[in-house]
Design a protein that fits this description.
about 0% strand; intramembrane prenyl-peptidase Rce1; hydrolase; single chain; mainly alpha; transmembrane helix; Rce1/LyrA-like_dom; globular; Rce1
Length: about 290
């Protein structure tokens, strides 16, 4: 396996990327939530999007510099190292695979709740509000860019085995969400224990999602596939695993049957639907 940097340097840079991504959220006064202004305020959101975009560019420049070959152009090196190639087929299959996990919730929204009637309105209200831009566009794009496209190559360069990369690198992604403890206690003083519990749960599921996103990135070599999957998961939220679906009993039965069937389909097809002829190969990253 190609060895360019030490594991210590790869880990140190990954921690630095994580700290930078979080730190820029608080550097500007307009980006800091207060007891009077929440993190959902348009000014806070816009300032933070600009800040993390800058942080993403810095991280990308560092990673590309490390992996850029002597005869590389900047554009070709960035495309190869950061997974910036256009692979529409990989994006579609990755989304289809992810959708199997949400077969039940999709049925509940479109059929049980007849959400297909409100779908265009929900898209407009969800994606074009500033909270939607943050949650479904800017957030997934910058997080996947830094925690997949910038951090994963560093561990390839340090000769870390692909299996370890899938399970280790998402921990940086999980740690990046611990800062929400500060935000929650700033807006709700005296609720430290609750803030810690919520952040622990968030750390857990973001790390688990990170395993999946890292797997997608390494199998397909497509950053866009990771962003699309991340955005889709943010839109869907966590599937319900208890309770009844509104309406007739058959809707609840159908929901849970589809939930289980979707999980089975996911486990059966995860290899085939993420197979790519031009996946992310560590041996393509040459100095």
């Amino acid at each position: 396996m190609l060895h360019i940097i030490s594991l210590e340097l790869a880990a140190s840079l990954s921690v630095a990327y994580t700290l930078l991504y979080v730190a820029v959220l608080y550097l500007h006064p307009s980006s800091r939530p207060t007891r009077l202004i929440s993190k959902d305020h348009p000014t806070v959101i816009k300032t933070r999007i600009a800040a993390v975009s800058f942080a993403s560019a810095v991280c990308a420049a560092c990673t590309v510099y490390i992996g850029m070959g002597a005869h590389d152009s900047l554009v070709s090196a960035a495309k190869r190292i950061l997974g910036l190639t256009m692979k529409p087929q990989e994006v579609v299959w990755s989304l289809a695979l992810t959708a199997t996990l949400f077969a039940g919730p999709l049925f509940e929204y479109f059929v049980a709740d007849r959400g297909w009637m409100d779908f265009p309105r929900d898209i407009v209200h969800g994606l074009f509000a500033w909270t939607g831009v943050r949650n479904y566009i800017a957030g997934p794009a910058t997080e996947e860019f830094v925690f997949r496209a910038c951090i994963i190559p560093l561990h390839f360069y340090a000769s870390v085995k692909p299996g370890y990369i899938v399970f280790i690198t998402p921990l940086y992604f999980g740690l990046a969400h611990v800062h929400h403890i500060y935000e929650r206690t700033r807006q709700n003083p005296g609720q430290l224990a609750q803030a810690c519990l919520v952040s622990f749960v968030q750390f857990t599921y973001t790390s688990i999602f990170g395993w999946y996103a890292s797997f997608i990135f390494m199998r397909t070599g497509s950053l866009l596939a990771c962003i699309a999957v991340h955005s889709f998961c943010n839109i869907m939220g966590l599937p319900r695993v208890t309770g009844r679906v509104r309406g007739a009993l058959w809707k609840s039965v159908a929901y849970y049957v589809l939930l289980v069937a979707g999980l089975l389909l996911f486990t059966v097809q995860i290899d085939d639907w993420t197979r790519s002829a031009t996946g992310y190969e560590p041996y393509a990253l040459r100095r």
